[in-house]
Amino acid sequence: MANNAEDVEKNMDQQQANAAPEPPQQQQQQQQQQAQEAATTRARSRGGSGAGGGGDGGGGGGGGGSGTGPEQNGQPPTPRPVVMVDAEEDEDEELTLKYGAKHVIMLFVPVTLCMVVVVATIKSVSFYTQNDGQRLIYTPFPEDTDTVAQRALNSILNATIMITVIIVMTLVLVLLYKYRCYKVIQGWLFLSSLLLLFFFSYIYLKEVFKTYNVAMDYFTLAIIIWNFGVVGMMCIHWKGPLRLQQAYLIMISALMALVFIKYLPEWTAWLILAVISVYDLLAVLCPKGPLRILVETAQERNEPIFPALIYSSTMVWLVNMADTDRPKRNSTEAASSQQETPEAAAAAAAAVVVSPAPSSPSQDDGGFTTSWVNQQQHQLGPLQSTDETRREIQQMPSARPPVEDDDEERGVKLGLGDFIFYSMLVGKASAAASGDWNTTLACFVAILIGLCLTLLLLAIFKKALPALPISIFFGLVFYFATDNLVRPFMDKLALHQFYI
Amino acid sequence: MTAAVFFGCTFIAFGPAIALFLFTIAREPLRVIFLIAGAFFWLVSLLLSSMVWFISVQISNKESAVQQKGLLIFGVVLSVLLQETFRFAYYKLLKKANEGLLTLSQEETMPISIRQLAYVSGLGFGFMSGAFSVVNILADSVGPGTVGIHGDSQHYFLSSAFMTMAIILLHMFWGVVFFDACEKQHWWAVAAVVISHLVVSCLTFQNPEYVASLVPTYVILFLMGVWAFYSAGGSFRNLKLCLTCKDKDFLLANHRPR
C-alpha cells in the first residue's frame, strides 16, 4: 500500500487540478476489485479503482451466497446442507420465482438510479464531455489522428494496454490474497475510497457549481466535503444505515463512471467495454481464471471475500456473540455472510475478510475491566472460557429457536464495477450519440434486460457468474444499432409527424 | 416553449401511463420485469424495421423526395406489421414460460395471469413507443425557440403530446385484446387489432391537419378501450359495483370492509 500512496502523491504533484492521477490508482484498484469481484457472481467490479474502485466486491447474485462467514458464536461455520428433498425443490422453485423477481427489482432500482445520475450530469455539466486533451496514462495514444486506420490502431493499442494492466492487477490481487497479505489489500481499498469520496466529489461539486453559477466560499465547501467524505467512509467501511450506504455506493459508482467517460477517448471506451466483458467471462468461468481462483480460495478458507465495495440490497440482523479481534464489522456483510443459501453460490462479500479468526486472548477486553474480572474470579473461582469450551456448550441443543432463513430477507449483491460499467455505457451513449435520448433509452432497456437474464441464469446455475457480458453485449449492440439505423428513421418520422 | 410547454406536454403524453404504472404495476416486481421485457420486444421490432428501411434508402434514389416519402410510408407500414408480429412472439414466449412455471410448481395458481401479462406487455409496448416518439421533441421544447417560425403548424408540441398519449393507451388496449383473442383463437380479432393499428398510423400521414388525424384516433381509442374492457371481463354491472364501492371481490382482495 505504501507504493500506492507514493504513486498517488507523485501523481498529484505532477498534475494539478485534474483527475488524471486517479486513473493509475484506479487501475490498480480496478484490478483488485476485479479480482475480488470476480469471485462472486456479478462481482464485476471492475470499477474504478479509484476510491470507489473498491466496488468490486463480488456481486453475488441471489442471497447471501455461500458466505464463508467468519466463526459465528464460537463455532466454526458449518456449510449448510445443500441436499434438498425433491418435494421441497418444487416449492423452492416457486418461491425462487417470486423472490427472484423481487431480487431483480432490488437491483434494477439502484442500477437505474446510478444511470440517471450519470446521464443527468452528462447532460447538464459540460465538463465531463469536454475534451481537454488530457488522457489517462493507461491510454497514451491519442485518437485525434489524421486517418481512420491510425485512429483504429491507436484505440486498439490503448485498449490492449488497459486490459493488460487490469489483468496484471488482478493477478497481483489474487497473489496477495493467496499469501494472506490482507492488510495490504485493505489499506489499498481504504485509500482508494478515500480518494474517491474526497477528491472526486470535490471536483464534481466544483463543476456543478460552475455550471449553475453558484458562488460558494471555500470554508463552506470544505465543511460539506469533509462531512460527505467522512460519513461516506464510515458507511462504506464500517457501519451505517442501509439506505445511506447504498446511496453512497451509488454515488461513488457514478463518480467513477463519469471519470471514465471524461478521460477515455471514444473508440477506446467502446473497445474497452467489449474486451472487459470478454475478460470478465473468461476470468470467472475458466478453471484457471484469476477470479475463479479467488472465489475458490476464499471458499476453501471459509472466509468471506473482501467487503470492498459491493452493493448489497438488504440487511439481516443477527444475534452474534461479541467477537474480539474484529476491527470493522459491516452489518450488511455480517448478515449476508451468515445466510448460506444453496441458491446463491456466490461468496457474498462478507464483512471484513481481513480479520483472522478470533483468538482467545484478545486486545479488546470487551468492556470487562480487570477489577470486575478479578472480582468475578474471586467469587466464582478461576474460570477460563476457551474456544473449545465454548464450542462444547454451543453444540448442546439450545433452547433458542433456530434462525429462520427467510428468502425475502436475503438480499442480492452486485459488484460496484458492474454499476460503473453499465453507467459508463449509458453515459457514453448520451454524451456521444447524436440521436440523444432514443439511444440512451435503448441502451438503458438493453442493460436492464441483460441484468435480468444474468439473474435468471444465476437462479438456474447457482454459481458465480459474471454480470458484465450479457448486459454490455446488449448495450453495445443496441447503441450502435440505434445510433446508426433507428435514429435516421425516427428523425424522418418526427419531421413529418408520422407515428408508428 | 420552455418549462411550461415541456412539463405540460410531458404530463399530457405520459400522465395516464405513469399513473397506471404507479398504481398497478410498480408494487409487483414480476409485472415490472414483464413490462420492461415488453419494452425490449418493441425495441427489437423497431430495430428490425429501421434496418430494412435504412437498407432500402441506401439503395434508392436519395434525390427524389417523392421516393423518399414513399419509402417512409413503406417503413411505417412495415414497422406496424413487425410490431404486431413481435407482440405475437411475446405472447408465445409468455405462454411457454407460463406453462413451464406451472409444471414446475405444484401450485395451481400462477404468480401472474395471462390477462395481467396482456395488460403489462401492452403497457410496455406503449411506454417504449411513446418514449421513442416524443422524448426528443420534449427535450427540444425546453430550449428557446419559436414554434412553426417557417410556416409550420404552431401546435406541433401539443399535438405530438396528445398523439403520444393516444398511442400509449392504444398499445395497452391492443395488448389486452390481442392476447385475449389469441387465447380464444379468435383470429378475426387479431386481424382487427392489426388493422386498427395500421389505420391509426396511416391517419398520422395527414399531419399537420391535426383535426383529421387526432379526432379519428381518439374515436378509435375509445372504441378499443371499450372492447378491451369487455374482453378483460368487465361489464356494466361490474363497473357500477366498482364505482359505488360495493364490489365484494375487489374489496376482499384489498382487505377493505364494505
Automatic annotation (TrEMBL), chain A:
GO terms for molecular function: aspartic endopeptidase activity, intramembrane cleaving. Residues 1-82, 379-409 are annotated as: Disordered. It is a multi-pass membrane protein. The chain crosses the membrane at residues 104-122, 156-176, 188-205, 217-236, 248-264, 270-286, 441-461, 467-486. Its EC number is 3.4.23.-. One of its GO terms (biological process) is melanocyte differentiation. Its main location: membrane. It is found in: Cell membrane; Cell projection, Axon; Cytoplasmic granule; Endoplasmic reticulum membrane. Residues 47-68 have a biased composition (Gly residues). The keyword DNA damage does not apply. InterPro entries: Peptidase_A22A, Preselin/SPP, Presenilin_C. GO terms for cellular component: axon; endoplasmic reticulum membrane; gamma-secretase complex; Golgi membrane; synapse. Keywords: Cell membrane, Cell projection, Endoplasmic reticulum, Golgi apparatus, Hydrolase, Membrane, Notch signaling pathway, Protease, Synapse, Transmembrane, Transmembrane helix. It holds the Pfam family Presenilin. Probable subunit of the gamma-secretase complex, an endoprotease complex that catalyzes the intramembrane cleavage of integral membrane proteins such as Notch receptors. Homodimer. The PAL motif is required for normal active site conformation. Belongs to the peptidase A22A family. This is Presenilin. It comes from Parambassis ranga. The lineage of its organism: Eukaryota, Metazoa, Chordata, Craniata, Vertebrata.
TrEMBL record, chain B:
Its main location: membrane. GO terms for biological process: Notch signaling pathway; protein processing. The chain crosses the membrane at residues 6-25, 32-59, 71-90, 117-139, 159-179, 186-206, 212-230. It is a multi-pass membrane protein. It is found in: Membrane. Keywords: Membrane, Notch signaling pathway, Transmembrane, Transmembrane helix. Belongs to the APH-1 family. This is Gamma-secretase subunit APH-1. It comes from Parambassis ranga (Indian glassy fish). The gene is aph1b.
